[in-house]
Amino acid sequence: DGRKEVLGMWVGENESAKFWATVLNSLKNRGVEDIFIACTDNLTGFDAAIHATFPQTEIQNCIIHQLRNSRKYVSYKDLKALMADLKAVYAAVDEQAALDALDTFGERWDKKYPKISQSWRANWANLSTYFKYPQEVRRLIYTTNAIEGFNRQLRKVTKAKSVFPTDDSLLKMLYLAMMDIT
Fold first, then answer.
1. For 60-86, b where at least 16 C-beta lie within 10 A, e where not — what string?
2. How many structural domains compose the chain?
3. Residues 6+ apart with CB under 8 A from 122
4. Is the distance from CB of 115 to CB of 123 less than 8 angstroms?
5. Is 93 within 8 Å of 69 (Cβ atoms)?
6. Statement: the pTM of the whole predicted model exceeds 0.85
7. What phi and psi values does residue 61 have, to the nearest 5 degrees?
8. Of 102, 109, 116, 123, whose Cβ has the fewest other Cβ atoms within 10 Å?
9. Is the pLDDT of residue 17 over 90?
10. In-domain check, residue 89
11. Domain residues for 67?
């Protein structure tokens, strides 16, 4: 119905495909029938876990994560111009215009930073999903910022106490924080 809602909290050693399959199966067992679109930070195995549990789900990799990854090895003097050229890709009016902008980006930057356009092309299937939707909706589905902001607020709570005797004690503290945040 258009509201953001926390559907659960899980504690895991790492974010593996097996962990995400457990999370998604738990959601399905609790009544989630389908996920329309999932915006992910391109974790290994996450796409496979989503499609195994909810086969019709469309995947959108977070553009902000892709941008951060792209700028990681760029010289400071090139950063502003390079990011402006990348903006022409992800802010394009449609997918074809984005691909044209990516070609233009590659022509300008591939000699100096070839891995950037290679990464965008390799991940294009999941980076371009949001182009199927109207401009008004794209900002809602092209980034994981909503969940990242929520997680940042939870980290503030756990930062003060770095050791928890049990997973249950951690979950209790996170639950109380979540109730306060939401």
1. bbbbbbbbebbbeebeeeeeeebeebb
2. 1
3. none
4. no
5. no
6. no
7. -75, 145
8. 123
9. no
10. yes
11. 63-141
